[in-house]
Each structure stands twice: as structure tokens, then as C-alpha cells.
Write a structure and sequence with these properties.
Blueprint: E1 3-7, E2 10-13, E3 18-25, E4 33-39, E5 46-51, E6 58-60, E7 68-73, E8 78-83, E9 92-99, E10 112-113, E11 117-122
Parallel strand pairs: 2-11
Antiparallel strand pairs: 1-3, 3-8, 4-5, 4-9, 5-6, 7-8, 9-10, 9-11
Length: about 120
Amino acid sequence: QVQLVESGGGLVQAGSSLRLSCIASGLTFRNYVMAWFRQAPGKERGFAAAISGGGKTTSYADSVKARFSISRDNAKNTVYLQMNSLKPEDTAVYYCAAKRPGGSMRSDEYSYWGQGTQVTVSS
């Protein structure tokens, strides 16, 4: 049984930083592309960042590029999202997701999802 468990969300002020973590179990972690998606109130879930199984290739949404950094530790089955210079518009539930390599970054291509962690950025 695959499980993805996110942590690290919270309430912060604009300009602050947060680091999200997602611990995976029940899968061969290094064989999966890992990603972070986010969903703001009243909006569809959108792509934020992704990282290849070996960690050498990353991809970011334009809205978070240069502020967010995705990384992974395959020895710990954990993927991270370092979020800097947070803005109120970053407020959302952040989800960790996993898929096998290939295809696109569309959310419907991801097989496994965590329960989400809330990030709230006050102005």
C-alpha cells in the first residue's frame, strides 16, 4: 500500500520561508517522479514543481520559479519543497504526488497522492 505523507505547512507572513516534506512508503521511491501540486480555495489543483527519480531534473511552474526549490533524498524516501519569499497568493493546500517516468506534468498522470498540508501566507 503506497502512502505519501506531507508535513511542514503552517501560517507565515509574506516574505517568509517554509520547507515542506513528503515521506513515501510502499513504493520503490527512486523509480518515481515526485511532484508538488497546490490548490487554492475555489481554484483547480495546479502543478508547482517536480523532480526526476535520480534528482537531476527538476521542473517548476512559472509562478514559483526562482522562489521554490524541489529536492529529494532517496535514502530517506523523502521529497522536499523549499519555499522562499512567500506571497499571499501562495496560500493553498500543497499535495505531494508520485508517478512513473514519462508523460507530462498533468495531475491526472500521477498515481499516488498525499492528503495535503495547508500553507497560509498573510500579508
